[in-house]
Every structure is written in C-alpha cells, then in structure tokens.
Design goal:
Elements lengths: L1 E5 L3 H12 L3 E5 L7 H5 L3 E2 L3 H7 L2 E4 L4 H9 L12 E4 L5 H13 L3 E4 L2 E2 L2 H6 L2 E7 L1 H14 E6 L5 H29 L4 H9 L6 H11 L9 H17 L5 H15 L16
Parallel strand pairs: 1-2, 1-4, 2-3, 4-5, 5-6, 8-9
Antiparallel strand pairs: 6-8, 7-8
Helix pairs in contact: 8-10, 8-11, 8-12, 9-10, 11-12
The structure holds NADPH dihydro-nicotinamide-adenine-dinucleotide phosphate and 4-oxobutanoic acid.
The site of NADPH dihydro-nicotinamide-adenine-dinucleotide phosphate has 26 residues, from helix 1 and helix 4.
C-alpha cells in the first residue's frame, strides 16, 4: 500500500525509513527537498509538493515541527487540502488541540479522513519502531492505519475525539520538561556540593524515581554533550502549549512555568537546536 510522508526531520526520517524497511511503499516530501535524497536510497519515491504526495497515496502521514508548519502544509498552495478528497491524513506532529481541530475540520469538509497521532518516544524509539502512539479522530480510519502504527510503535492508544491526542501528548511532555529541569538542578547541586554526580546517577537508578530519561541523558549531560534527539526548541514549544492548556482549564502549573522559563533562557543562549537536556547549561 502506498503511504505518503511529509516532514523528514529527526523523527520523520527515522519513521519513514522504518516503514520502508517493513515493506510499505512510501512517497516522501520535505520542505528542504534535498533531505529526500537519503530516503530515495532506502527505496522511497519523492513528491514535489504535499498535494502531489497526497494525490498518489491512500493516506499520508505528517511529522512537522510545530503548529505553524502543520497548518502551512495543509492550507497553503499545493498543500494537503487540494487533493485530500477520498483519502486520509494523519498528523503525528506535536501541536495544540486547536490546531489539530482546525486541520481536522478542513480535511473533513473536503471529503477526507483525519487522525491526529502524536507520539511519545524520541529518535531511537522512532528508529526501532518503539514509539507510543496517541491517536484520536475517525475510528474506522484508525483501524485502517493500524498496520502502519504497529510498525512505528510498540503501543497505540485510541483516545476518542480530535484534540485528545494533542492534549495527552502535551501533558506528557509538560511532565518530562519539568523532570528534566529538576534532574539538571540535581546534577549541578551534587557537583557543587562536593558529591560525584555519577554516583548520583547510580543512586537515582536504584530508587523509586529511576526512569529511562535519567538513564539515557544523565551520562551525556555530565559530559556537557547534547547531540539532538529531541531539539530543545520543540520542548520549549511543548511547554508553551501545555501552559496554554493549563490557562484554558484554570490549572495552576508553577513547576511547569518555571521549567518553561529555563527552556526559554536556553533558547536565548542559542541552544535551541541541541537536545532538550542542554537546559542543563543554563545552570553551568
Ligand atoms: N525529536 C523527538 O524526539 C520528538 C519530536 N516530536 C515532535 O515531532 C515533530 C518533529 O520533530 P523533529 O523531527 O524532532 O523535528 P525537526 O526539527 O528535526 O524536523 C522538523 C520538520 O518540520 C519541517 N518544517 C518546519 N517548518 C516547516 C514549514 N513551515 N513548512 C513545512 N515543513 C516545515 C522541517 O523541514 P526542513 O527540513 O525544511 O526544515 C522538518 O522536516 C515536532 O512536532 C516534535 O515536537 C515528538 C516526539 C519526539
Ligand atoms: O516529544 C518528544 C518526546 C521525547 C521522548 O519521549 O523521549
């Protein structure tokens, strides 16, 4: 079955290669078209525009940086809407519910099917097909897309109406961003107060707050090394969108608000393209 894929950044590249490896025919598009070359080496075809990809595929997946990119690819000239009639569109980007609902309504008005399906998990889980998929929208289309989700992820959740996937993803990343700041403060405090931060990693790993993120990021943070798996600029976008969701629902989130300030500071220091663990540098 032919699947379209729009957006070949860190995640989109890994996800589309994974689909190809599992026998799907994939047609790709990326704003910077030269990034499609590597996918062609893996067997992909290339579409010149989002509309051209959508036209030849039963359904098309998007993995784009933020709400403005997600909207642009759908609504602009040569965008998804122009060819969506009778086809499906799955937006896996992390965006807010409002953006997702706007896209969903436009796709449906043109006779297409829509799912939002943001993911938990980063570059390595994307390469290994171990993402957690947070889908919402048309249930029949979800069932149709399950073979692709089964390749991309280790578990898919169907969360009901469009907006619920986006909200779940933002809540998860709000918790993650807050934890990353507490972790950075802990590593820094350990070092400055005369402890060995490596020993702190061992102690944390044996206790109740042991987790994959501390285990994965701790050793590189201690070397002040932040190769981008999840770019810091995207984590800050997610904190901003989660705080807006908190505003809408009158939920006080002082911890998340402080974490957002730290990510903003890191961006102002030019660290936005590094991994989100580079927020550690704001304390150095
Ligand atoms: N990295 C991670 O660990 C995870 C990321 N996410 C989410 O997935 C999405 C993608 O993340 P990631 O792959 O890391 O990001 P990258 O920054 O690596 O890639 C972003 C992609 O969006 C494209 N893009 C940006 N602006 C536009 C635009 N105006 N029009 C068209 N295309 C555009 C880029 O194209 P170009 O190449 O031309 O710049 C690129 O393909 C984000 O929403 C992120 O929050 C979710 C889970 C994990
Ligand atoms: O949105 C990015 C999530 C990164 C992760 O789950 O490790």
């Amino acid at each position: 079955m032919e699947i379209g894929f729009l957006g070949l950044g860190i995640m989109g590249k890994a996800m589309s290669i994974n689909l190809l490896r599992h026998g799907f025919k994939v047609t790709v598009w990326n704003r910077t078209l030269s990034k499609c070359d590597e996918l062609v080496e893996h067997g992909a075809s290339v579409g010149e525009t989002p509309a051209a990809v959508v036209k030849k595929c039963k359904y098309t997946i998007a993995m784009l940086s933020d709400p403005s990119a997600a909207l642009s690819v759908v609504f602009d000239k040569d965008g998804v809407l122009e060819q969506i009639n009778g086809r499906g569109y799955i937006d896996m980007s992390t965006v807010d519910a409002e953006t997702s609902i706007k896209i969903s309504e436009a796709i449906k008005a043109k006779g297409g099917d829509f799912l939002e399906a943001p993911v938990s998990g980063s570059k390595k889980p994307a390469e290994d097909g171990q993402l957690v998929i947070l889908a919402a929208g048309d249930k029949a289309f979800y069932d149709e897309a399950l073979p692709a989700f089964d390749v991309l992820g280790k578990k898919s959740f169907f969360l009901g109406e469009v907006g619920n996937g986006a909200k779940m993803k933002l809540v998860v990343n709000m918790v993650m961003g807050s934890m990353m700041n507490a972790f950075s403060e802990g590593l820094t405090l350990a070092g400055r107060s005369g402890l060995n931060p490596s020993t702190l990693l061992d102690v944390l790993d044996l206790g109740a707050i042991s987790n994959g993120m501390f285990k994965l990021k701790g050793p590189t943070m201690l070397k002040n090394s932040y190769p981008p798996a999840f770019p810091l600029k995207h984590q800050q976008k997610d904190m901003r969108l989660a705080l807006a969701l908190g505003d809408e629902n009158a939920v006080p989130m002082p911890v998340a608000a402080a974490a957002n300030e730290a990510f903003k500071k890191a961006r102002s220091m030019g660290l936005g393209d590094l991994d989100f663990s580079a927020v550690h540098e704001t304390l150095q």
